[in-house]
């Protein structure tokens, strides 16, 4: 277990002990949250519905980690390359945020991809998934994360092949919107830009 994982486990344990200390168990064995805990839960719910204190940053997933670093301006991709980006989340809320993340990204993630200035539609399959889940709360499997303020955490891995038809040559700009409550506001990430070139083009020719 590395230091980061150990620290997160300790933080969760401290939080759980704190919750129990602030709550009470009645004569029927039912745990009742204190007024302080109810107020804290309400504050957190509001932050998740209106995520002005949350920041999303988008970076590339390198093909060669020995030569590349995650960046907002990755080297050109060739036709047929997989193109993946990591969504990074941080926040400035005064307390740790507990965030639910569905395993199915179509619930609460929406990429927006432009090619040479034109917005690209989702693939037919991706659009059908979005339409089915647009206004429905997540009912499938998911994970809960407790995020401390002032730190960055990896969130969804955005695989463009799961959202779009194979990308042709061109200059692209990608942002990703995410919501943290199914009835909440959408928050937009920073942008990444990248090029896709065919094998008979080089990066200089693509930008002309």
Whole-number tally of structural domains: 1
Q: What is the ordering of alpha helices and beta strands?
A: HEEHEEEEEEHEEEEEH
Low-confidence region ranges: 1-21, 203-208
Output the CATH topology: Immunoglobulin-like
What count of helical segments does DSSP give?
Answer: 4
Description:
This protein has one domain (53-207): Immunoglobulin-like (Sandwich), CATH 2.60.40.2550. It is globular. A hairpin with a 5-residue loop joins strand 1 (24-25) and strand 2. Strands 4, 7, 8, 11, 12 and 13 form a six-stranded mixed β-sheet that branches. Helix content is 24%, strand content 32%. It is an alpha+beta fold and 208 residues long. Residues 1-21 and 203-208 have low confidence and may be disordered. The chain has four helices and 13 strands.
């Amino acid at each position: 277990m590395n230091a980061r994982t150990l620290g997160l486990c300790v933080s969760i344990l401290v939080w759980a002990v704190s919750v129990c200390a602030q709550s009470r168990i009645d004569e029927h064995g039912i745990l009742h949250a204190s007024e302080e805990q109810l107020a804290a839960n309400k504050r957190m719910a509001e932050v998740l519905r209106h995520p002005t204190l949350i920041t999303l940053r988008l970076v590339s997933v390198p093909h060669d980690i020995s030569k590349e670093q995650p960046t907002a301006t990755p080297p050109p991709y060739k036709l047929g390359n997989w193109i993946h980006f990591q969504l990074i989340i941080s926040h400035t809320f005064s307390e740790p945020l507990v965030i639910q993340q569905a395993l199915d990204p179509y619930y609460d993630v929406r990429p927006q991809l432009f090619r040479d200035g034109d917005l690209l539609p989702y693939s037919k399959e991706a659009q059908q998934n979005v339409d089915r889940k647009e206004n429905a709360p997540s009912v499938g499997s998911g994970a809960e994360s407790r995020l401390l303020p002032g730190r960055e955490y990896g969130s969804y891995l955005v695989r463009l092949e799961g959202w779009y038809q194979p990308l042709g040559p061109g200059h692209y700009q990608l942002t990703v919107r995410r919501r943290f409550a199914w009835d909440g506001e959408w928050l937009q990430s920073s942008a990444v830009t990248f090029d896709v070139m065919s094998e008979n083009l080089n990066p200089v020719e693509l930008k002309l």
